[in-house]
């Protein structure tokens, strides 16, 4: 009886091992993702080869959040905390560091006008932003000591035609909240001016 059980067990084991060695005709399907480049490293690189963690919030994602302010879009990202400052504005904390250690750029240029070391996010109209690039981690070698926590690069909308453009927007939300925005752009040759409120 014991011999029969052992033989049965070994035959079942060999059968399954044999099936494990059969070559399958299944096809490996590769899905190509849209290549995304990030320019907050002072050079346009694919997000896959950037040496520190980063993310990109595109125009579609900004619209889907139904946010009315820039801080509402940014605070939904992992590892980012929006904190109130001493003067009532809002700052961005990254990597657990204070808001004064987060560099905020507009089209790759550092934004000026910090109060108590923090740039007020309410100064930046969401109507003028095409995409947001976020680099988490120390970037002080590229952007100075205020980029120890990370970098947020705001890419503004590009005007394609020469001349003047004006965009007006209004959003109505819960609790009777109303948010209006206006964007004025002027382009002539290589010169582009943009102002938003």
UniProtKB/TrEMBL annotation:
Query: What GO biological process terms does the UniProt entry carry, in alphabetical order?
Result: siderophore transmembrane transport
- Residue ranges occupied by any TonB-dependent receptor plug domain in the UniProt entry: 50-151
Keywords from the named record: Signal
MF terms (GO), sorted A to Z: siderophore uptake transmembrane transporter activity
One cellular component GO annotation, for this chain's record? cell outer membrane
Q: Which PANTHER family match?
A: HEMOGLOBIN AND HEMOGLOBIN-HAPTOGLOBIN-BINDING PROTEIN 1-RELATED (PTHR30069:SF29), TONB-DEPENDENT OUTER MEMBRANE RECEPTOR (PTHR30069)
Q: What is this protein called?
A: TonB-dependent receptor plug domain-containing protein
Originating species: marine metagenome
């Amino acid at each position: 009886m014991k011999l029969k059980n052992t033989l049965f067990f070994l035959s079942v084991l060999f059968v399954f091992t044999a099936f494990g060695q059969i070559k399958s005709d299944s096809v490996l399907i590769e899905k190509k993702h849209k290549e995304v480049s990030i320019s907050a490293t002072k050079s346009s690189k694919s997000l896959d080869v950037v040496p520190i963690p980063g993310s990109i919030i595109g125009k579609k994602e900004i619209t889907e959040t139904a946010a009315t302010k820039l801080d509402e879009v940014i605070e939904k990202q992992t590892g980012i905390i929006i904190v109130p400052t001493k003067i009532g504005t809002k700052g961005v904390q990254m990597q657990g560091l204070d808001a004064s250690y987060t560099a905020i750029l507009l089209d790759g240029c550092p934004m000026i006008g910090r109060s108590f070391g923090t740039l007020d996010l309410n100064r930046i109209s969401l109507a003028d932003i095409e995409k947001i690039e976020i680099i988490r981690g120390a970037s002080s070698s590229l952007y100075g000591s205020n980029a120890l926590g990370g970098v947020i690069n705001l890419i503004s909308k590009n005007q394609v035609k020469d001349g003047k453009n004006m965009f007006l927007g209004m959003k109505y939300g819960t609790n009777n909240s109303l948010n209006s925005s206006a964007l004025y752009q002027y382009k002539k040759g290589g010169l582009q001016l943009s102002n938003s409120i």
